[in-house]
Amino acid sequence: MKNTIDLNNFIQIAIIVEDIEKAAREWAEILGVPVPEIVHQPPKEPSENLLYRGGPASYDLKLACIPSPMGFVIELHECDQNDSTFREYVNKHGYGVHHIGFKVGEQRDAIVEELQERGYEIRMIGKSQYNTWTIMDTENVLGVNLNIKPRHFQPR
Asked: Which of 72, 115, 138, 152 is the Cys-Cys partner for 142 at CB 3.0 to 4.6 Å?
C-alpha cells in the first residue's frame, strides 16, 4: 500500500463479551488493575453520525476501557440484539476480538480508500463530538476488523 499503517500508532484492541460486568472484573483481576468504569451508550435515533453497512444505525452498547501504560486500550464491548457491526460479529463468530485500532491522522481518508480498492468494505462509520471511527471489514482475510481513526481518543 502507498499509505501504510504505522505499527507505532496501534491504539486499541476491542473485544466483544457476553457479560461486561463479569469480563471487566476478570480482566482487572488478571491484569492487577482497577475495575474499569462501564459506560452505557443507549441507542440514539438513527442518523448520519452512525452508519452500519451504509445505512443509519441504532443500537445499545456497554463499553469499558482498560488503559495500557504502552498507550493502547483494551476495550470491552457488550452489544444488544440490534443490527450493528458488533452483533454481526457475534452472530458469525461468537464473542471475541472484533477489531484492532490505529490512529492514522490525516492519512485516514487515503488509507480507507486504499483498503476499499483492495476489496475491503466500510463496515461502520461513527462520529461524535469527541471522536470518529471507521471499521473496515477485513476479518475474512486478516482475522480481525480494522478501526481506522484520525486521532487517538482516551475515554474519560
From this structure: 138
Cα–Cα distance measured from residue 152 to residue 156, given in angstroms and rounded to the nearest whole number: 13
Q: Give me the residue spans of the domains in the chain.
A: 7-149
Strand pairing report for 61-67 and 38-41:
antiparallel
Each residue's pLDDT tens digit in the chain (156 positions)? 999 999 999 999 999 999 999 999 999 999 999 999 999 988 778 778 889 999 998 899 999 999 999 999 999 999 999 999 999 999 999 999 999 999 999 999 999 999 999 999 999 998 877 778 999 999 999 999 999 998 655 444
